[in-house]
Each structure stands twice: as C-alpha cells, then as structure tokens.
Write a structure and sequence with these properties.
The complex is a heterodimer of chains A (197) and B (85). Chain A is an all-alpha fold. Chain A is built from 9 helices and no strands. Chain B is built from 4 helices and no strands. In chain B, helix 1 (7-18) packs parallel to helix 3 (38-56) and helix 2 (24-36) packs across helix 3 (38-56). The termini of chain B are far apart. With 85 residues, chain B is mainly alpha-helical. Classes of the chains: A mainly alpha (197), B mainly alpha (85).
C-alpha cells in the first residue's frame, strides 16, 4: 500500500495504518532528527512531536510533495529548534577518499581498483557485499552517514537532502562522494577476502 | 598517452558526474579520460554499484515499545479530535 493510501486510512482513524507508516519512515526520520539533536531522550521527544504535528496537519496535506518529504521537513524543523541553534558548519574532510598512495606523482593509478562488478552478479557475493555496505554505512562519521543514508538509501534528491540538513548542494555532494568512496573501499576489501588495498 | 586530467582528479569528479552536477567542460574532460582509462572506468562502475547496494539496504523495524508509545499518541489524538467535534 502506498503512503497516500495509508494517509487516507489514518484520516479515517485506522490505527494499523498509522503503525505501518511509522514503521516505514522511522529510520529516515530518526536520522534527520539525530543530525540536529544529540541526546536519546530529546530525540525521542522530537520524533513524538513530529508525529503529533503530522497528525494535526494530515487533513491539510495536499500531496504536493511526497509524504516522506513532508514528514522529514516537519522533523527537521522541530529538531532544528530543539537542537543547537547554530548553523552547522561542516568541515570539509581533508582526507582523500582514495588513499594517495594509490596514485603516482602524476596522479595516475599505481594500484587500480579491483573489479568487483562481476562478483556482485553472484548471489552469495551480493549478500556479502550488501552486509559490508550496511556495516560501512553504519561506520561512517556524521554528517556523511546521514547524507548517504538520505540520498542513497532513502532515495531523496540531493537538493532535498541539502534543505533538510541546512547544507549547500556543493557541500552535500562532497559529503556524498566521501561517504560513498569509503563504503566502496570497505566493500572492495570484503569482496577481496578481507585484504584492504 | 596524454590525458587532460589525472586519474586522481577523475576520481574526485565521479560523484558530481553521477549527480549530474559537472559543468559541460568538466564532464567532457572526465568522459575523455574515462574513454582511455580502464581503472577509472572500473572506479565509476563501482560507485554505481555502491549506490545500488545502498538502495538495497533496509533498516531494522522500530522496537515494539517505541511503536506502542507512538500508537498511544495516535489514540490520544483521535480521542481529542472526536471530543472537539
């Protein structure tokens, strides 16, 4: 059932539909809230306040944006007010995502990336790669983790991610690149049998 | 072989390329580089694979007590809304 159908059921008072929509979006909402709010207890309160605001506004939700986008914007607004009022300044991570040792002085590869595209076609390797990807994602430092989760796992546009996290589009893309590059390294080392480059 | 950009520079442009955020000029330079460089082409393919893999990641369900707390919020809201009517 899509979100719009769930929304209609919720408006009709269907508790199970509410349960479903909470379950479907809780991970994305929690990531956005946690981006602004540090403590567990406060984050839990903000999540709860977000759902209250959603219920209050639901009859006026016109579906101009997706339900998920609307929900996350409400969550981000409430979390922003509760969390640090300072605009988050994201240090541009000076570490090159691909280690410098892999290039010669002229900037050409000395240790080219190992091919894993063929490996991914095998189901077993695919499951292993997916697990490595999940673990690498969880290990990413903030704000890379939130950026990659919202863009690549949750499928939001780069612009929407920037808007939710108060980042410039360019900054979001830098964080996305660094995050993806780190995940790629982890997946590569797993597929090669645990030997990092 | 002459290349306008180095492999290292090409790698740095890959995400912006996939996001469609490169200028026309950078895009052409990168594509020219990729046409002549197997290693960077492999890198680009892998970044595409990573995006696909991330898209397949699912998160654990919210724990039951947390869901029940929210369901309670919903029920309270319903009750208040009915009372207001």
């Amino acid at each position: 059932m899509d979100d719009q159908a769930l929304v209609e059921r919720i408006l009709a008072g269907d508790r199970e539909a509410f349960r479903d929509i909470v379950q479907r979006h809780h991970a994305a909402l929690e990531r956005v809230v946690r981006y602004y709010v540090k403590s567990d207890a406060t984050a839990q309160d903000v999540v709860q306040d977000t759902w209250i605001a959603v219920l209050r506004g639901l009859s006026k939700f016109e579906g101009r944006s997706s339900f998920k986008t609307w929900l996350l914007r409400i969550g981000a607004n409430l979390a922003r007010k509760t969390g640090s009022r300072e605009r988050r300044i994201v240090p541009v991570d000076p570490i090159d995502p691909v280690s410098s040792a892999r290039f010669n002085e002229g900037g050409m590869w000395t240790q080219p990336p190992a091919h894993f595209t063929d490996l991914l076609e095998e189901k077993l390797a695919n499951a292993k790669a997916l697990e490595a990807c999940r673990a690498a994602l969880a290990d990413l430092a903030e704000p890379q983790r939130t950026v990659v989760t919202l863009r690549d796992v949750e499928g939001l546009s780069t612009r929407e991610v920037s808007r939710l996290l108060d980042l410039s589009d360019a900054n979001t893309r830098v964080l996305l690149h660094r995050g993806r590059a780190k995940i790629r390294e982890t997946v590569e080392s797993h597929l090669k049998g645990g030997t990092p480059w | 072989m002459t290349k306008d950009i180095s492999c290292r520079q090409a790698v740095a442009l890959v995400s912006d390329y996939l996001e469609g955020a490169l200028s026309w000029r950078d895009r052409r330079r990168l594509e020219r580089h990729l046409a002549n460089c197997d290693a960077c082409s492999a890198y680009l393919d892998q970044m595409r694979e990573i995006i696909l893999l991330c898209g397949a990641v699912t998160f654990e369900d919210l724990a039951a007590p947390a869901v029940e707390r929210l369901v309670e919020v919903f029920e309270n809201y319903q009750r208040d809304a009915t009372r207001d009517d």
